[in-house]
Amino acid sequence: MDSNKFSYRVYSDLSLIEREQWDSGLNEDDYYMNYDFLHLTNLSVLNVDKYYYVMIFCGDVKIANIVMFSFLLDFYKAVNISAKRIIAIIRKIYKKAFFQKVLFCGLPVSTVDNSIRIFNKEYTADILNILNCVIKKISTDEKANIIFYKDFCSNDLEWSCLLKGKSNTLVKGLSSNEIKIIWNTFDDYLNNLHKRYRNPLKKVLRKRDECTIRILKGDEITFTNEFYSLYEQVNEDSEYQLEKFSINFFKNITCCPNIDSFYILIEGNNAILGYVLVVEKKDCLIPLFLGYSKKHNKTYDIYFNLVYKVLELAIERKKSMVKFGQTADYFKHKIGCYPVDVWWYIRLNNVLLRPFTSLIFRKMFPEKKVTSFDLFKS
After folding, report:
1. Which of 7, 53, 195, 205 is most buried per CB count within 10 Å?
2. Helix residue spans in the chain (DSSP H)
C-alpha cells in the first residue's frame, strides 16, 4: 500500500464534519449511516462513552465512512439467561467482575447493519488495513480490552473476511428474523395457515376489538414519561441489552428528514398500552423498538398484536419483506419468519486469551436451536 496515496480523518464530534461531506457516497436508503440519524443517536444513546467517525481518502476522494464507539460493557446485560446466572454468582464474590471497556466498530443501535461503508471496492484491502491501524490506536488510548466488529450479513463475508488476518476471530452472532411477503391481503395470510395455527391467531386478533390501533407520526404523539416507561419495561426485561435510548430519541426519530418512520399504537383504558417504532424502506418494513405494558400484555396480547399489525401493514403496502430483528425467535418463526445469519469479528487484546475467543463467545452467547413449523397449506 502506498501510504502517501491514502489519508484518514477521525472525529469524536460529528458536528465538526459537514453533513454533505459525510453523506456523499451513501445510498439513498442507507438510513442508519446518514448524518441526521447518527446525530440523533449521538444525542440519545445513554451508555456510550465516546464516538469515532472515520473518513478515509484516496487523494482528495473519499473512499470510506466508518463509525465506532466505546463504552463500559456490563456483560450481565449483554448475555443470555444461563450466562447471567453464572455472572450473578461470581459477582457475589467479585462485584466488579465482567465489566469491560470495549470498542465497537459498528452502529450504536441494534439494526443488524455494520458501519463500514466502502465507496470504491478496488481499495477494500487498503481501507481495512487503515481501519486496523486506527482501531489499534483508539483501543490503546481507550484501554479497551475487547474489540467487536458487529453485524455482518453473509454477503458481507466476501470482503470483510480480510479482517480475519488481523488477529480477529469470526463468530456467529444472534440470528435475525425475516419474513417474505407472498400474500396479497392479510386475510390471504390467515387463510393460508393450517387450522392449528390460524385458530389461536384469530383469538389474539379478536382482542384488538377491545382496543384502538392507530398509525401515527411522532408529531402526532405526546411523549410523556408514561410513554417512555413502556420502552423501559421491555428494555430492562430484554435478554440481550446493548444500547439504551433517552426519551428524546423517540421524540425526534420521526422528524429526521432522511428517514421514513412511524408508530403503531395500541390504546385502551384511556392510555397507551403499547407501541412499535417502524422504519419504512422502499421494499420492507423494519420494526426498530417497541414498548408495552407488562401488566396488560396478557389481557390484550399487546406484543403479538403489534407484531401482527406490522405484518398486516407490510402486506397492505406491498412490501417484499419485514425484517423483525434478533429477539423472540420462537414466536417469530411461528408466524413465518426464517433465520438470517449475522456475523461478528472479535479481537481480544489479551494475547493469552485470544486463542479461546470462539469458545468464550459461544459460552456467553450460545447458538439457539431453530424451531421450524409447518405453518402454511402451500
Report:
1. 53
2. 19-23, 35-44, 75-78, 81-91, 124-142, 157-160, 186-192, 195-206, 225-237, 247-252, 297-300, 302-316, 329-334, 357-364
Dump the DSSP string for 82-146: HHHHHHHHHHTT-TTTTEEEEEEES-SS-SS--SEEES-GGGHHHHHHHHHHHHHHHHHHHT-SE
Neighbours of 119 (CB within 10 A): 16
Write out the H or E segment, with its range, that includes residue 149: strand 146-152
∠ at Cα 335 (332, 340), nearest 5°?
45
Residue 63 sits at φ, ψ, to 5 deg, of -120, -5
Q: What are 237's three cell numbers? A: 426485561
Is residue 350 helix, strand or coil?
Answer: coil
pLDDT in tens, 34-87: 999 999 999 998 889 999 999 999 999 999 999 999 988 877 776 777 777 888
Residue 327 C-alpha cell reads as 429477539
What's the pLDDT tens digit per position in 191-200? 999 999 999 9
Spell out the long-range contacts of 224-233 with Cβ–Cβ below 8 A and sequence spacing 24 or more: 226/271, 226/272, 227/272, 227/275, 227/291, 228/291, 229/291, 230/272, 230/274, 230/275, 230/291, 230/292, 230/293, 231/289, 231/290, 231/291, 232/291, 233/291, 233/292, 233/293, 233/294
Separation CA 34–CA 18 (nearest Å) = 12
Distance CA 94, CA 115 (A): 35
Who contacts 50 (Cβ-Cβ below 8 Å, separation ≥6)? 12, 69, 70, 71, 142
Three cell numbers written together for 356: 479461546
